[in-house]
Amino acid sequence: MSETQERTGTLADLKDVVPTAPEAPVYEVKRDAQGRSYATGRRKDAVARVWIKPGKGDITVNGRPVGTYFARPVLRMLLTQPFLVADRYNQFDVVCTVVGGGLSGQAGAVRHGISRALTHYEPGLRSILKAAGFLTRDSRQVERKKYGRAKARRSFQFSKR
């Protein structure tokens, strides 16, 4: 009992000890010499390299305007979601290059890259974008085809006769 008291002291001494909670990490601004922020976004097999800088809201994908590259309005809506949630619509120009996957995966990769680049440009937006789920990489992949099956899970048509 005396050894325990020597190590910890009395209860009165413990009352004065204030527990310290770990501080939240401080995220710093990451910009290059031209004032741009860079991030990589991924979705399925698509990888997007995204640069954002202050501007009028122009989005360029692989050297083409977003309206011609992503013709479907749903895919264009995906790209603008991070700006709408962060209340920064038409305040940043986006230049990105995308490789791999299909159009849906590429749009998801660009959205992920835009969200990450926004957090590098303005670290205060991180909590808003994280709550909306834009900073989480969607890890779902296409299931592989199995032998003895028509596709990953579909069987060949069965005929009794």
Automatic annotation (TrEMBL):
Annotated GO CC locations: cytosolic small ribosomal subunit
Keyword entries, A-Z: Ribonucleoprotein, Ribosomal protein
GO biological process: translation
Record Pfam families: Ribosomal_S9
Domain of life from the UniProt record: Bacteria
Gene Ontology MF term list: RNA binding; structural constituent of ribosome
Protein name as annotated: Small ribosomal subunit protein uS9
Gene name in the database record: rpsI
